Structure formats: structure tokens, C-alpha cells
Amino acid sequence: MELGLAMKEEHGLSMRRACRLLGLSTSAPYYQPRGRDDAPVIDAVSKHVTDNPGHGFGLLYDSLRADRQPWGKSWLWRVYKQLRLNLPRRGKRRLPARIARPLDIPERPNETWSADFMADAHGAAGVFAPSTSSMTSAARRCGSRSTPACRPAVWFARLMS
What we know:
By secondary structure, this protein is α+β, with helices and mostly antiparallel strands. The chain has 3 domains: 1-32, no CATH class; 39-82; 113-160, no CATH class. Helix content is 41%, strand content 12%. It contains 7 helices and 2 strands; from the N terminus they run αααααββαα. It has a two-stranded antiparallel sheet. It starts with a helix and ends with a helix. The relative contact order is 0.07.
């Protein structure tokens, strides 16, 4: 600003021309910063925090907007941080560690059963045909009985006998 005034006085340039040469806006030399009075904001935030200690910034902002206070979100957030009220985020609740136990192995076939549900789409029409495949858990684990792809009904009948 002072440089613009010096150019105006020493070289006889207009203020507009001096600002243009310096790359400033024409209103820059006349700018007077306004002081911010944060006292009412600090009072309102402090009152809300003492009344509601568990509330974070979001609930503070919502309640002050409901009270028709003129302060915007940026102004409130700046004061909120100045007062060092920004709470750390809550951590994720963790489940307790699972105790790993070995799986139960059946002693003989047909002691435990499991079923897999499979679906298949035939052709371009996208027909949905669910089918089930059943076998004992022991047979599944040892892999001795595998499902024949062409005759599931025959295989199922043999398995059940």
C-alpha cells in the first residue's frame, strides 16, 4: 500500500494506475481490517459446553443455529478450536479375541451333515435353478466321495443308503 502511495506522489501516477502496475486491486489501499469480537461466541460456547459436556461440535452448532445465533460454522469452529474443545474421535469397538479351538472330527460317517446351496444360470435366458448338494462332514473333509456332475440324483440316493 505504501509503495502505491509512493508511486503516486513521486511519479505523479493515479492510484488506479499505481495499483495496476503493482498487481493490486484498486480497493486495496483503502482496506481497513475489522477487529473480531469473539466474546459473545466464547460465552455461548462455554455455556453450552458446561450444560452439555458430552456434546461435540456438531450438536453445539445445531443448538446455536436453533437459538438463531448469527455465527457461521467457520467462525464457531475457529473459536471451538481456540478453546481446545475439539474431542478426539471415538475408536472402533473391538470384539474380544476369539479362543481358537480345533474343529470336532466325527468318529464315523453320517454323524454330522452339512448342505451347500448352489445356483446356476442356464444359457443366455438367465434361468435360475437352485440345487442342493448334501454330504457328511466327514466325507467332505476326507474327500473320498466326490459328487458326479452328470448324475446328482443317483449320487444322492447312494449316499443316503
